[in-house]
Amino acid sequence: MKTSESISEIAKGLNEVRKNIKQPEKSANNPFFKSKYVMLEGVVDAIDKALPKGFAYTQEVTSDGNQISVSTILLHESGQYIQFDPLNVPVTKNDAQAFGSAETYARRYTLSAVFGVTSDVDDDGNSATKSAPKETPHKRRMTPKKSSKPMASQADKDTLKDKIAALSKEMAMNPKPLTVASMKNAKVASWKDMTKDDLSAMDHELTTELMQFRQKNEKKDSNKSTDESTDELWDSLKV
User: Fold this and answer.
1) In sequence order, what DSSP letters do the residues of 19-42 get, joined into one string?
2) What is the pTM of this model?
């Protein structure tokens, strides 16, 4: 995650969004999991209606081989910004429809995570990420394992570990209590059985924790500067 030197205005903006946002209706059907989810247009509409003045966002989409990466960037008219680490979605079917499906999924998923939109339960990107080839008639057909929610991959967990390590270093604390606290606040019961929803919730909690930490430090620095200025004033008056 990359940020401007200060993110105080963006933190205020995100706080306003979380207060004002109205969760969109899950109106799209996912036949693969027999569940409903919010389409990208619904997520964008809910966020746009809750954005305060001077606050904006954009998304950067890149591709590398059979992979789509989407990074969300928060912007404020003051020049402050936060660029979140990209979400990487594999695309095993080499056609435009599969790449488009992966991009839409990644954009919707990252926006939902950043702004706290409850757009799941689903795996509407399964058409882009499904990799199992059709079995030949001579092979024994296996019964697929049923799952109600997409599970976080080991790569997802490793990325989250790296983020926890970076945040704990900046906050000068042990990564274990930071991990435990974020899991508790995000209501994640098990690291081993973590779903993508759990991963998204933890990422949001960690980002919020970092923002609050930086705001406190900025406030301390501001108070320190004020105290020094007051002392200099009294010295000049020789009281």
Assistant:
1) HH--PPP--EEETTTTEEE--HHH
2) 0.48
Q: Could you tell me which residues come within 8 angstroms of residue 183 by beta carbon, excluding any fewer than 6 positions away?
A: 191, 202
Written as tens digits, the pLDDT of the chain (239 aa) is: 899 999 999 999 999 988 888 887 665 545 444 445 678 888 898 899 999 999 999 999 998 888 999 999 999 999 999 999 999 988 877 878 888 888 888 898 888 888 888 755 544 455 455 544 444 444 555 554 544 678 888 888 888 888 888 888 888 888 888 888 888 888 888 888 888 888 888 888 888 877 777 777 776 666 655 555 556 655 655 54
Helix (H, G, I), strand (E, B) or coil at 211: helix
Residue 224: enclosing H or E segment and its boundaries? helix 196-237
Q: Which two structure tokens, joined as six digits, stand for 184?
A: 């508790």
Residue 204 has which token pair? 């949001």
DSSP 40-66: HHHHHHHHHHHPPTTEEEEEEEEE-SS
Nearest of 74, 72, 24 to residue 52 by alpha carbon: 74
* Contact assessment for residue 92 and residue 131, using Cβ atoms and an 8 Å cutoff: yes
